[in-house]
Design brief:
The structure is a homodimer. Chain A is mostly helical. Chain A has five helices and two strands, in the order H-H-H-E-E-H-H. In chain A, helix 1 crosses helix 3, helix 1 crosses helix 4 and helix 2 crosses helix 3. The structure holds a DNA duplex (30 and 30 nucleotides).
Amino acid sequence: MITFETFKPVEGTPIYQQILLYIKRGAVAGTIRDGDELPSRRVLSALLGINPNTVQKAFRLLEDESLITSQTGAKSYMTLSGEKIGKLREDLIREDIRSIAGALRQMGIDKEEALRLLSENWEESES
Amino acid sequence: MITFETFKPVEGTPIYQQILLYIKRGAVAGTIRDGDELPSRRVLSALLGINPNTVQKAFRLLEDESLITSQTGAKSYMTLSGEKIGKLREDLIREDIRSIAGALRQMGIDKEEALRLLSENWEESES
DNA sequence: CAAACTGTACTAGTCGTATAATACAGTCAA
DNA sequence: TTGACTGTATTATACGACTAGTACAGTTTG
């Protein structure tokens, strides 16, 4: 059962997108595996203090990407493969790197300084 | 005069916030300096193809942070100081690093691998 | 079987972002 | 001084994210 214990929604980005990212990153990290059982829409929404429809939207999008399977009346499960995880990892990392590199470049920061900044502030930015 | 030539709005985040970031990052980079003249609300909105009210919202927030001064009837100008720029630089970088570090950590990526990924993909992620 | 769960669907409302149109007051230069 | 520009303010509309409540069909378990 996927727990969502470490899920802390942030304001500023849609919650359903944050749920999507939480699942995808968990899959890449290996903490979420193929066949894992997902909490029901109602249970998860109560746990997170959000609306069931918001959870449903996130789960529907996950199903659109074939990362979970849902069936009326039954529980939902992760459907992962090595190929899917590899794609996820590549996509997520590329997007994250593109984002930070663009931001730092706009501030006139070059590659060497970016590496130094990331190295110096890595531990400091614990969640 | 600040040009906004390299400003490309992205969908997914509010445009007024992107304008804020564009100005702040330019100030940190040194391409935007104290006393620089800002385009008028009407001119900039026409240039970017967005609504004047959206530009006004961004400029109002900049004035709330005392980064620009506005006066009815007259043009608006940047009001920067070394101290302000230093604060901006620290805040923006810290937030960016926190964001990428959190994302990569959620994917089970440690500091060494993060540095390697950033180094390998820095050039590739040109805007 | 029956109760308690599951996923799914729908309507209605709030809130923030963004647009559209207009108005008014102050500055600046021809 | 006059006209063209500035900043500022107002009202109305549209849309997506999110909430709230309800309903129905299918599965699972006692």
